[in-house]
Amino acid sequence: MEAVGKLAGGIAHDFNNHLTVIGGYVEAVLENMPDGPAREGIQEIQGAAERGASLTRQLLAFSRKQVLAPRAIVLTDVLSSSLNMIRRLIGENVAIETRLEGVTSRILADPTQIEQIIVNLAINARDAMPRGGTLFIETARVLPTASGRALPPELSTVPCVMLEVRDTGVGMDRETLSHLFEPFFTTKEPGRGTGLGMSIVYGFVRQNGGHIFCDSVPNKGTTITICFPEIHGVHEPARQKTEAAAPRADGHETVLLVEDDGAVRKLIRRLLQKNGYVVVEAESGAAALATPVTTACGFQLLITDVVMPEMNGADLARILIERCPTAKVMYLSGYMEDEMLRNGVATGDAGFLQKPFTAELFLRKVYDILHS
Ligand SMILES: Nc1ncnc2c1ncn2[C@@H]1O[C@H](COP(=O)(O)OP(=O)(O)OP(=O)(O)O)[C@@H](O)[C@H]1O
Ligand SMILES: [Mg+2]
Q: Hey, what CATH topology would domain 71-231 get?
């Protein structure tokens, strides 16, 4: 599993570079393009790039290298806003019944992961009901004493916010049930399922501090129950601030840009220059250290890829900040290295941007860091 995780993470990293370039140029082209068939074509490309990005998110989640963005959320709100998409996914054959009202307690979770959880569960339920049936989606606030289950210690003292997804489908026998969360376990025919759905659901639930249970009876149906511990107080990271300021072409600072992927580097350079910044670029840490601006500290911001051969972005930043203490740092990466996560480099910090990103998000981040 370790090796598979490494492989998935590595692919996702390179793939994110390509998606950054595709998405970046598509965005730039669409800016000045009149309506018409050509524009529609480009928009299709944009849609495909976004779907590619969501696929890499799945891969990264799987290899546990996804950058988590947990927030205090109301589960019901996230579910309600996914319902339309779920309706479309499961088709007309299956009825949906929901009971989502009334649970206002908050949990600490990454909303995009919650969406991916519900989508995976809904698709499994649909596949289990080829001749139709009903999908029930319910939330409830459950007191630890009332659950009737042997709960793990962290859930036996706090109330949990429960998500229950139930179907009236084919159910699972013991054998299937015992492999349910295994990656690549599938009973579907080749091309219909990869067997990653439930292992990703499991990973997401655990990453967000929750627990998952499954009850299933052959020919009767399946119930998936997920519990997230309720939280008190506010755990909102400082994101409102970044959402407020939307800077436009008013940069003037000098940016040292270090990125080993030539196409990504070119895209970012053009974006920065178009918005007034002066750009000095380098393809590696060593090349960056050799540029005159670094010896004279003539730059205000270092933008560096995290994962680069020889010298990584964090090591480069350390050396440069020692040399030029007033310079700011912004990391770009397709994923977070475990080691960086452990050392707390930039997680939740203003200085990290995950690839692929939109031009707007990128420029806002640059502006925020320079003005922080
Ligand atoms: N609601 C359900 N009802 C009956 N069987 C299920 C249900 N959910 C999962 N399963 C069984 O568990 C297996 C694994 O599910 P999982 O979601 O991990 O993979 P998949 O659906 O086969 O493929 P993928 O999700 O990657 O497209 C399924 O192939 C199916 O046999
Ligand atoms: Mg599935």
A: Heat Shock Protein 90 (3.30.565)
